[in-house]
Amino acid sequence: MIITLIISILPVYLVGLYIYKKDKNKEPKSLLKRLFIYGMLSCIPAAIVEILLGNFFAIEKSMNLVALFFYVFISVALVEELFKWIITYRLTYNNNEFDELYDAIVYAVFVSLGFACFENIFYVLDAGVKVGLFRAITAIPGHVSDAIIMGNYIGLAKLASTNNSDKLRNKNLLLSILIPTLAHTFYDYCLFTENVYFLLIFTIFLISIYIYSFKKVKRISSSKNELSNNKIVALNNHIYCHKCGTKNQGNYCYKCGTKLR
Hints:
Layout: H1 2-21, H2 29-41, H3 43-57, H4 65-92, H5 101-127, H6 129-137, H7 139-162, H8 166-193, H9 196-222, E1 233-235, E2 238-240, E3 247-248
Antiparallel strand pairs: 1-2, 2-3
Helix pairs in contact: 1-5, 1-6, 2-5, 3-4, 4-5, 4-8, 5-6, 5-7, 6-7, 7-8, 7-9, 8-9
């Protein structure tokens, strides 16, 4: 029992530690714990929605490849990634701590790790150590890779917001859901087909997305991508936006969206 739990949790801890260590300006541990816990809790509503959608699709062994793709896309990948996205966006997008591009990757990864940890414990306790070892090199890094893609686009959306580009902001927010969902879909789809050729494609895909994710983390964490603007004027405890001149008391201009602090 204890060994099984260790196998379930240890990969999550190691990946989280790596992502955290790469952050030059560390995020508050209280925020990361909150993201992780909410990520775990999101498994429950996600599972309920997946079951309901599974009944709608009437899953059968004989389901053709096209129907299987839409089933995986809508009732598995989209559901899971959307719940993780909502948590990441709602808890961090307007948070004062979100002041670097890499922060978004850290946030998305910790939500995803919470989700993956809960899911992993459930699967490993049910199926055993071998499944835990297999998931340690597939499912957990897979969730994290999707989160890195999500965080990257959320960071770009925040950058567009600080530059008053609503169109680009909305585009990147859409991509922050769509691209991870497609990656997640392809991952599960290859496995669900139980076809040897798709399993070969799955292996190539897995290696490719791991390399992409590692390079993305290394590049963004090592570069100086601050989401801040120092051109502000403070008068009588108020801050006047340098873009439109509107008087504000918060961290963002309520009129044009420019970051002030």
